[in-house]
Amino acid sequence: MNTLRLNHLLEKYQRKIKRIGPQNEMMTDIKSLLNNAIPTTDRRFVTEGIWAHQKLQMTDIPIEYCLFCLEMIYSNEAVELVEEFMNRTEHIYIIAPKIFQKLSDRDDPDGFMSVGILPIHDPAELVVRDDAVVVVLDGLESPGNIGTILRSCDGAGVDAVMICNPRARYNNPKMIKASMGAVFTVPIVQFEQPLQCINWLKGHNFRIYLADAEAKSCYEGNDYSGNTAIVLGSERYGISREWYNHSVQTLTIPMLGSCDSLNVGVAASILAYEICLHKRTQEGDCYENNI
Q1: Does domain 2-117 have CATH number 3.40.50.2000?
Q2: Which InterPro entries does the entry link to (predicted)?
């Protein structure tokens, strides 16, 4: 049955479809994306497989082109996604199983990849609700950590993630994978310098909290009312000193063992959930039904 459906799709979208081999220029392009060997101004990313495409399906992110290996597409779920993404792009490429396997990082790939263009939200156009929570990442270097933080922010209900003093590409394949689709749904705003971010936060009446292992105040017991921003820095250099020149509050997560700090992704997850849970508890809401 799925073979018949795939044949129907091949006929329906034949004007868009092109079969290509390993030497085709599109293969060079997608390998560059997968190896993160693209210009810093290039905002494209690669998504692979059913689960990631289901997340991408929920957005209006533009799709530049898709790659399919027909021999690897067998479930009804996969065929339905293939049809949707064939419809969302003007460029469809069919490749052989051996070629697809070399591109994929999976032992049992689903047989399709899409290349899309990630949006960067303009700070001037970002609309935040009252009592908002944003997480600011200052100078983080690990794309895996940033992806993990995006995933936690999506789960906690954070309104936006601000990448300040960027040291890693937010469309890095490792970041896309670690975010588990959150990079598609959580608004991301980028600031080149800390002061730009500080001025934006001040202009929107945010209380600014710095996650600092040297802080005297614990993250528990704070008010967190109104617009709240939590700033985390890189594990190597910490938060830029510029932040400490302004009206901010530092806080820490108690360490009861021999280690002096947590991985920044873990710390961000704890703080994001603590602040968002506090606000929802104040509003009479609770996470209980979602756990």
Answers
A1: no
A2: Alpha/beta_knot_MTases, Ribosomal_eL30-like_sf, rRNA_Methyltransferase, SpoU_MeTrfase, tRNA_m1G_MTases_N
